[in-house]
């Protein structure tokens, strides 16, 4: 892998940290460099430490690492928070004219730039972060002109004067460092290429996948970190004849989405944390009425309010078992940002083919992380739409009873009944949350109850036979050491292999995007000498599932600090875990 560079900007919430980082990330992507970002932010509008980190290389990068080369520090806390990742070759950009005196270790290069004063010269103190970006461009040998297009995209709606002022701010920052510092000893010189990359985060990929899949109705309630799915769809879905509705709460949101699906539209909702708890009441109604619905849960640290702006994979049991009674459902967990797109498309197909709720489980780290991809990664010609047993007026007669009533809940061998959209001739029917017969009429008849329960459960068995509930694999397929993960840990694991190889440790990695139904890993685990399950929760919810499936104890690596795994950190954890004894049976 080519040498990569790790850059960060930090300060307090309200300092424009996010927009600064995004502008630099977009500029790097436009220069043909791969980008992988990470955010650390407090759950408040102003105040509290916040940071935006970028790892960039001409090769693809899939994880953050414990190394920081360039730091833009707007507060002393920014320096203190990152000391462990700074090294002898690191450069720290700060504003010595501000009221705080920066305490910078002697072995690091201090670059004192009067950010506020230079910004005022360019047109306004608010542009001090752009001045810092210009300074960073000079230190890293990155052409400041690559910032121009990103600045136009960010500020174009505010008028050409604002755009030009920001371009000037970047250049005065670059010139100040050029004229006052000799930083050749740092040796940074960012290579650019002619490659064209798409830069997007996990929530944007989910939104894009929903549009590609034909989603035409979205209902949601704002909640961190799921809100940006709704923000992405707003203004875009309308171009395709769709609608976004902001509901008054999460329960209303899922019920609105359920209504949209009953009307025949591909519908979804998304939430996080306590929001998924509030939606639980409707899970059973979705399943019992056999309505296709996609429910996205962007996980965050819990329980209760927990840490709203921190990472965790703690909702797995909720997705699997949430709701009273027995609720058939599918649970799909994308393992990368590009998979957020493709698994969203698949989730809509599964929902309609099997007329059941599909839980699309992501997490905060993946939702806010921005990564670069070649445009062909999202080839719309590869998107396939499968609406399942959606009957038209020529087929509806096949599903009428002797009195001409449409059997919306007909008992079938595969468990999947015909589906008619309201307004279709002879397709009128009812569905309730009460147990019902084939026509949807309430019943307490024992035989009909058993038939309907078995029919709904049979859909899952049919899906097991028809669908490819597989996994992604990388590393050494013949290795004796097996590491299994789910969700957003895949990128860190893929890069951890490089560190493990340096220590002559061979590992086979299996990354599982399907939680229910899920692949049978019995043979893979039986063939391995050591099996480790990696996940971001305290109790090992996925490891519990694996042990249940294979009746074998596995080793566990669990992180629940609120921060995602880093590649080098994960390599160390795997190395240490391999030397431990397997837990007692």
Automatic annotation (TrEMBL):
Q: Which Gene3D superfamilies is this protein grouped with?
A: 3.40.50.920, 3.40.50.970, Pyruvate-ferredoxin oxidoreductase, PFOR, domain III (3.40.920.10)
CDD domains to which the protein is assigned, alphabetical: TPP_PYR_PFOR_IOR-alpha_like (cd07034)
Tell me what reaction this enzyme catalyses.
2 oxidized [2Fe-2S]-[ferredoxin] + 2-oxoglutarate + CoA = succinyl-CoA + 2 reduced [2Fe-2S]-[ferredoxin] + CO2 + H(+)
**Pyruvate/ketoisovalerate oxidoreductase catalytic domain sequence ranges:** 13-173
Task: Decide whether keyword Cytoplasm is in the record.
Answer: no
- Identify the stretch annotated as signal peptide in this record: none
InterPro entries in the record:
2-oxoacid/accept_OxRdtase_asu (IPR022367), Pyruvate:ferred/Flavod_OxRd (IPR050722), Pyrv/ketoisovalerate_OxRed_cat (IPR019752), Pyrv_Fd/Flavodoxin_OxRdtase_N (IPR002880), Pyrv_flavodox_OxRed_cen (IPR002869), THDP-binding (IPR029061), Transketo_C/PFOR_II (IPR009014)
Q: Is the keyword Acetylation assigned to this protein?
A: no
Annotated GO biological processes are: organic acid metabolic process; sulfur compound biosynthetic process
Q: Which residues form the Pyruvate flavodoxin/ferredoxin oxidoreductase pyrimidine binding domain?
A: 209-453
Q: What is its EC number?
A: 1.2.7.3
GO molecular function term, any single one? 2-oxoglutarate synthase activity
Q: Which UniProt keywords apply?
A: Oxidoreductase
Subunit record text = Heterotetramer of the KorA, KorB, KorC and KorD subunits.
Q: Mind telling me what this protein is named?
A: 2-oxoglutarate synthase subunit KorA
Natural source organism: Haloarchaeobius amylolyticus
């Amino acid at each position: 892998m080519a040498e990569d560079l790790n850059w960060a900007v930090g300060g307090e919430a309200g300092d424009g940290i996010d927009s600064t980082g995004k502008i630099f990330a977009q500029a790097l992507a436009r220069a043909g460099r791969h980008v992988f970002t990470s955010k650390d932010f407090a759950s408040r509008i102003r105040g509290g430490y916040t940071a935006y980190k970028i790892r960039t290389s001409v090769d693809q990068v899939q994880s953050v690492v414990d190394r920081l080369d360039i730091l833009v520090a707007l507060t002393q806390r920014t320096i203190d928070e990152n000391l462990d990742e700074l090294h002898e070759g690191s450069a720290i950009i700060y504003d010595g004219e501000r009221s705080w005196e920066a305490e910078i270790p002697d072995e690091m290069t201090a670059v004192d730039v009067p950010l506020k004063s230079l910004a005022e010269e360019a047109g306004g103190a608010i542009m001090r972060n752009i001045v810092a970006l210009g300074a960073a461009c000079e230190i890293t040998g990155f052409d400041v002109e690559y910032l121009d297009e990103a600045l136009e995209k960010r500020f174009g709606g505010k008028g050409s004067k604002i755009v030009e002022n920001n371009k000037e701010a970047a250049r005065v920052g670059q010139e100040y460092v050029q004229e006052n510092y000799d930083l050749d000893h740092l040796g940074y010189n960012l290579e650019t290429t002619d490659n064209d990359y798409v830069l997007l985060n996990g929530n944007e990929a989910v939104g894009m996948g929903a549009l590609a899949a034909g989603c035409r109705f979205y209902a949601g309630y704002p909640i961190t970190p799921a809100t940006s799915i709704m923000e992405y769809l707003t203004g875009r879905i309308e171009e395709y004849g769709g609608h976004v509705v902001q509901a008054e709460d999460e329960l209303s949101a899922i019920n609105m989405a359920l209504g949209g699906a009953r009307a025949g539209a591909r519908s979804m909702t998304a939430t996080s944390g306590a929001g998924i708890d509030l939606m639980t009441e409707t899970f059973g109604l979705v399943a019992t009425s056999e309505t296709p619905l996609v429910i996205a849960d962007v996980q965050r640290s819990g329980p209760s309010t927990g840490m709203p702006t921190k990472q965790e994979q703690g909702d797995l049991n909720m997705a699997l078992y949430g709701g009273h009674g027995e609720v058939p459902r599918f649970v799909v967990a994308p393992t990368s940002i590009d998979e957020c797109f493709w698994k969203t498309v698949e989730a809509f197909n599964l929902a309609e083919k099997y007329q059941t709720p599909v839980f699309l489980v992501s997490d905060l780290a993946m939702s806010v992380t921005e990564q670069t991809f070649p445009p062909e990664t999202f080839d719309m010609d590869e998107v396939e739409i499968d609406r399942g047993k959606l009957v038209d007026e020529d087929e509806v007669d096949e599903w009428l009873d002797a009195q001409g009533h449409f059997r919306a809940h007909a008992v079938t061998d595969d468990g999947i009944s015909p589906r008619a959209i309201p307004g279709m001739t002879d397709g009128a029917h009812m569905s309730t949350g009460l147990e019902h017969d084939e026509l949807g009429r309430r019943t307490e008849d024992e035989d009909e109850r058993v038939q309907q329960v078995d029919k709904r459960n049979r859909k899952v068995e049919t899906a097991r036979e028809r669908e490819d509930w597989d996994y992604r694999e990388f590393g050494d397929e013949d290795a004796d050491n097996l590491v299994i993960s789910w969700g957003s840990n895949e990128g860190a694991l893929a890069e951890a292999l490089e560190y493990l190889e340096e220590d002559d440790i061979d590992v086979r990695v299996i990354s599982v995007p399907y939680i229910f139904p899920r692949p049978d890993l019995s043979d893979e685990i039986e063939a391995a000498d050591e099996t480790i399950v990696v996940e971001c929760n305290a109790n090992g919810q996925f490891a519990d599932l694996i042990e249940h499936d294979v009746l074998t104890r596995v080793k566990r690596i669990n992180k629940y600090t609120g921060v995602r795994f880093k590649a080098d950190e994960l390599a160390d954890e795997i190395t240490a875990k391999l030397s431990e004894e397997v837990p007692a049976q």
